[in-house]
Amino acid sequence: AAKNAGPSARIAYHPGLRETGRQQAMLIADLREAIGGGQLLLEYQPIAVLADGLIVGFEALVRWQHPRLGRLGPDRFVHLAESEGLIGDLGAWVLSQGVAGAVTLNTAAGRPVFVDINVSPVQFGPRLTQDLHHALTGHAVDPAMVVLEVTETMLGSDRQWLAGELGKLKATGARVAVDDFGTGYSSLARLRDLPVDIIKIDRMFVSGLTPGAPAQMIAGILQIAASLDMDVVAEGIEQTTERDLLAELGCRLGQGYLYSRPIGLAQAQAMILAGPLIR
Ligand code: C2E
Ligand code: MG
Ligand code: MG
Ligand code: MG
């Protein structure tokens, strides 16, 4: 019992909470300790040129190695960090760790390799710019090799405010990608005049792509991206047929289980040294 007498154990016996609420409360208490306590880690998923499999970047994805529950994915705890006021601390950790990962991977590759870092909408504000600046300072990495992924839902925010916030991030030299594009009902026109460098097409539009099936959404995204001079990454590629069709449509970059699941930093280093991901 002494071994489990952490904050979760105390909350676990609170009589007023329902089971699910209790479990959530335990997780929240644990998460507070996890962020500063070395329980978070980043995995990296390669982003490749569809035409030849050359790895040009990685997306950093956070995981929580929970002492009792095992490894938890971000869908289990990022929303809790957002609602409990912990996303600033979590985000700062991800930023500093992600930039360090970018340094490692660029050094290993001996050529430019970008690292995407996911940013929560709740993180926006003065601290985000400050933390980004802090993470980039003192690191021998081209800031353009750090790409901040913001969710498409953010495009619905006040336009002037958003342009200002993204402008502040861009002022550090980092680049900006719009994640999960196509899911948020925001019109493609919303992208115009925003300092966005990369569009990530959501997996929803990629999975099940077959020859002859309509691909208007992807074609539309590619067209506007080309006209705005933005690069495009297709997410969630699992099949060679999907990869081939995306390439035919004119999509340059992709990521997904076809190439690799998210892996540790050492594995990512080895992967980039092993050459293109021929699939
Ligand atoms: P996302 O940014 O859209 O990341 C892509 C997700 O799709 C990842 O899930 C990845 O493992 C998964 N994925 C990649 N390729 C495939 C595929 O071929 N098939 C399928 N079925 N899935 C694939 P993951 O790691 O569970 O992350 C889920 C979401 O959590 C991310 O979606 C992102 O929104 C959020 N997230 C991850 N890391 C962070 C972080 O450091 N900070 C914040 N704020 N959010 C994060
Ligand atoms: Mg992402
Ligand atoms: Mg995504
Ligand atoms: Mg997604």
Automatic annotation (TrEMBL):
The organism's superkingdom is given as Bacteria
Q: Which residues form the EAL domain?
A: 24-276
* Name assigned to this protein: GGDEF domain-containing protein
Location of this fragment in the whole protein: 435 to 713 of 713
